[in-house]
Write a structure and sequence with these properties.
It is a single chain. By secondary structure, the protein is an alpha/beta fold. The protein has two domains: about 160 residues, Rossmann fold; about 90 residues, ProC C-terminal domain-like (ProC C-terminal domain-like fold, Orthogonal Bundle). About 55% of the residues lie in helices and about 15% in strands. It has twelve helices and eight strands. An eight-stranded mixed β-sheet has the order 3-2-1-4-5-6-7-8, with helices on both faces. Strand 7, helix 6 and strand 8 form a beta-alpha-beta unit. The radius of gyration is 21 Å and the shape is elongated. It binds NADPH dihydro-nicotinamide-adenine-dinucleotide phosphate (NDP) and (2S)-3,4-dihydro-2H-pyrrole-2-carboxylic acid. The site of NADPH dihydro-nicotinamide-adenine-dinucleotide phosphate (NDP) has 26 residues, from helix 1. One of its GO terms (molecular function) is pyrroline-5-carboxylate reductase activity. Catalyzes the reduction of 1-pyrroline-5-carboxylate (PCA) to L-proline. Its main location: cytoplasm. InterPro entries: 6-PGluconate_DH-like_C_sf (IPR008927), NAD(P)-bd_dom_sf (IPR036291), P5C_Rdtase_cat_N (IPR028939), P5CR-like_CS (IPR053790), P5CR_dimer (IPR029036), Pyrroline-COOH_reductase (IPR000304).
Length: about 270
C-alpha cells in the first residue's frame, strides 16, 4: 500500500514514525511539505520519499493523508484534486474540516474518512476517532482502520458531529496531560525535589494510573476512592482541587476544544 502525506508537520511525523518500518516500508510512504528541513529529517529517520509540492508519487498513492493545518486545507485540496486517483482513499486528520466541504474542494471525491488521531501514535499508543463519509467502500474502511490501528486504537463514530468531542477529549488530550504533568513537576520542585525527580515521579504516576484504569472494569471514581484514605493526604489534595474548581475547569476546557473544532469547520467551510 502506497501512502502519501500532504503536510509533514507534528502529527504527520508522529503517524509516520508509528507506521514506517512497521505497517509498511518507509519507501512506500511519500511526504509532501514545503519545508525542506522537515522533509530531510523524515527521510533520514524513516527512508520516506519526499517532495515540496504535490507530484506524480501522490497520484500513484492508494491512500492520501491530508495532514496540513485546517486553514491550509482548502488550498491544498484545490492543488490536489487533479492529481488524485478516483479510487484513492483520502484520510483527513484536520480538526474541524467537514467531510462534505473537503469532498467539494476535491471536486466531488467520494472516498473520504475523517480521523482525529493523537500524538502518542508516535509510540504506537495513539487513539483515533474515525468516521467514514458516504462513498467509502468496506475495503477502504478496513484499510483506514488498519492504518490507524498500526499506531494505536481506533474508535469508529456513526455521526460526523462527534469528531469535535473526540478532538476535545483525545485529539487535544495529550496536551492536557503534559500540562498536568508540568504542574506536578512544578509542585515537586517547590517542595524541594529536583526537576528530574519531579518528572520521574509525575510521569510514572500518570502512566501507572492510566494503565491501571485501562486494565480495570471498575468506575474511575472507585479507583480514585481507593487512593483516598479518610482524613489522609489524598483527601487533602482532592479537597483543595474541588475548592479550586479543577474538575469544572477541565470539563470546560474539553468543551472549549470541541467547540473550537465545530467553529473551525463552520468558519473554514464557508464559501
Ligand atoms: N498536532 C496534533 O497533536 C494533532 C493535529 N491534528 C491535525 O493535524 C493537522 C496538522 O497539524 P500539525 O501537525 O500540528 O500542524 P503542523 O503545522 O505541524 O503541520 C502542517 C504542515 O503542513 C505544511 N504545509 C503547509 N502548506 C502545505 C501544502 N500546501 N502542502 C503540503 N504541506 C503544507 C506546513 O508547513 P508550514 O508550517 O510552512 O505552513 C506544516 O509543515 C491539523 O489539521 C490538525 O488539526 C490532529 C490531531 C492531533
Ligand atoms: O490543536 C489543534 O488544533 C490540533 C487538533 C487536535 C490537536 N491538535
Amino acid at each position: 500500500m502506497k501512502i502519501a502525506f500532504i503536510g509533514g508537520g507534528n502529527m504527520a511525523s508522529a503517524l509516520i514514525s508509528g507506521l514506517a518500518g512497521k505497517f509498511t516500508a518507509g519507501s512506500n510512504i511519500h511526504v509532501v511539505d514545503p519545508n525542506a528541513g522537515a522533509l530531510d529529517k523524515l527521510h533520514a529517520a524513516h527512508g520516506v520519499t519526499t517532495a515540496g509540492t504535490v507530484d506524480a508519487a501522490v497520484a500513484a498513492s492508494d491512500v492520501v493523508v491530508l495532514s496540513v493545518k485546517p486553514q491550509q486545507m482548502r488550498d491544498v485540496a484545490a492543488s490536489l484534486k487533479q492529481h488524485l486517483r478516483s479510487d484513492a482513499l483520502v484520510l483527513s486528520i484536520a480538526a474541524g474540516i467537514r467531510g462534505a466541504d473537503l469532498a467539494r474542494w476535491l471536486g466531488g471525491h467520494a472516498a473520504i474518512v475523517r480521523t482525529m488521531p493523537n500524538t502518542p501514535a508516535l509510540i504506537g499508543r495513539g487513539i483515533t476517532g474515525m468516521v467514514a463519509m458516504q462513498g467509502v467502500s468496506d475495503a477502504q474502511k478496513a484499510a483506514a482502520d488498519a492504518i490507524m490501528k498500526a499506531v494505536g486504537e481506533t474508535v469508529w463514530l456513526d455521526d460526523e458531529a462527534m469528531i469535535d468531542p473526540v478532538t476535545g477529549v483525545s485529539g487535544s488530550g495529550p496536551a492536557y496531560v503534559f500540562y498536568f504533568l508540568e504542574a506536578m513537576q512544578q509542585a515537586a520542585v517547590e517542595l524541594g525535589l529536583s526537576a528530574e525527580q519531579g518528572r520521574e515521579l509525575a510521569v510514572a504516576t500518570f502512566a501507572g494510573a492510566a494503565e491501571l484504569a485501562k486494565r480495570s472494569d471498575e468506575p474511575l471514581s472507585v479507583l480514585r476512592e481507593r487512593v483516598t484514605s479518610k482524613g489522609g493526604t489524598t483527601y487533602a489534595a482532592l479537597t483543595s482541587m474541588e475548592q479550586s474548581g479543577v474538575k469544572e475547569a477541565v470539563v470546560n476546557a474539553v468543551k472549549a476544544a470541541s467547540a473550537r473544532g465545530r467553529e473551525l469547520g463552520e468558519e473554514l467551510g464557508r464559501d
